[in-house]
TrEMBL record:
The protein's name in its UniProt record: DNA polymerase III, delta subunit
Protein keywords: DNA replication, DNA-directed DNA polymerase, Nucleotidyltransferase, Transferase
GO biological-process terms attached to the record: DNA-templated DNA replication
Keyword Transmembrane helix set for record: no
GO function terms (MF aspect): DNA binding; DNA-directed DNA polymerase activity
């Protein structure tokens, strides 16, 4: 039977219960979860006094694997545990040699390996050794469609509700950089009026700098509803405010939406719940636009739109385009989508 992979929440739950493993090998493309786990261990396993002698933080570019192993083999001083954090561990050569230490690790050492922007080859011996005595955690990039649910979950833990449109606006504006996204959410929490526990689109507009009427979320809605006037007003606003509305972000979001729309035609169940399950969306609410769009665009038209978005993306990068501005490219694309 395959070993069940623990989620970030599972690992943090164990740590809060003071259930520690000899090694945490944290790897993957999404830095946010790696930092979240490593920071929790750094901040909470040892007291401030114990940290003076028993907390070691090193960087992969400055050490070799022998140095890491020697640090892990030390015994704690006046403490039950010592913590060794290895940041940017992807820079360490011969990481495979760590498997020799893991055959008989010290239970008094909590070794945390932070391997970002990549993963271990799961066929290697080191992977088996880590899984035998500790935790191998892969931090995967979150999908665009999962962002609103991430935002709502993050804020709910802080005792704050997000209006659906506010979540969608922030997700579209920030994208999948979770470190930046959580930074913007913390900024929102600080700026909420005393006693207020709900974030509205107006607060997003005021504190994050996104227009509640002229943004990628509203452009998508206009295209779904085939509202030509609204779509062109938004394009004009984007053209006048290019720094806060870069064309690449708009094209990426449109491509993701129409790609998901194409997948929606193959869903066995054409309901909010069915589409949400088929696309892996966290909330049936997020499937409403797809159901509406399916009534307004057929499969052939959707495939044509996906092609036009690709063509617009190439033009925005200067391919087969000598003179068109970003505004002109978007205006032409919107015309082709709506007609």
């Amino acid at each position: 039977m395959a070993k069940q992979e623990l989620s970030c929440d599972d690992i943090l739950k164990e740590l809060r219960a003071k259930q520690y493993r000899p090694i945490y090998y944290l790897m993957g493309e999404e830095s946010y979860y790696i930092d979240l786990i490593a920071d929790y261990i750094t901040d909470n396993v040892l007291s401030e006094t114990e940290k003076e002698f028993n907390l070691t933080v090193v960087y992969g570019a400055d050490v070799d694997i022998a140095t890491v192993i020697n640090a892990a083999k030390r015994y704690p001083m006046m403490s039950e545990y010592q913590v060794v954090i290895v940041k940017e561990a992807q820079a360490i050569r011969n990481m495979e040699e760590l498997s020799f230490y893991l055959q008989k690790p010290l239970n008094s050492t909590i070794l945390v390996i932070c391997h970002k922007h990549g993963t271990l080859d799961k066929r290697k011996k080191l992977v088996a050794e880590v899984e035998k005595v500790g935790i191998l955690f892969e931090s995967k990039k979150i999908k665009d469609s999962q962002l609103p649910a991430f935002i709502n979950s993050y804020m709910k833990r802080k005792g704050i509700d997000m209006e659906p449109k506010a979540s969608a606006m922030l997700a579209d504006f920030v994208g999948t950089d979770l470190s930046r996204l959580t930074g913007e959410l913390e900024k929102l929490i600080i700026t909420l009026p005393a006693g207020q526990k709900r974030v509205t689109p107006e607060q997003i507009e005021k504190n994050i700098g996104i227009s509640k009427d002229y943004n990628n979320f509203e452009l998508r809605s206009a295209l779904v509803e085939k509202d030509i006037l609204k779509a062109n007003k938004i394009i004009k606003y984007f053209e006048e405010n290019p720094k806060t509305n870069p064309i690449q972000m708009t094209l990426s979001l449109l491509f993701n939406f129409y790609s998901n729309l194409m997948l929606s035609y193959y869903s066995p169940e054409k309901t909010e719940q069915g589409i949400a399950s088929w696309l892996g969306l966290k909330s049936p609410w997020a499937a409403r636009d797809y159901l509406t769009a399916m009534r307004r665009y057929n499969g052939v038209k959707t495939m044509q739109i996906i092609g036009e978005i690709r063509y617009a993306d190439a033009k925005s990068k200067g391919i087969n385009n000598a003179s068109m501005s970003d505004g002109d490219i978007l205006r032409e694309l919107v015309f082709k989508i709506l007609h």
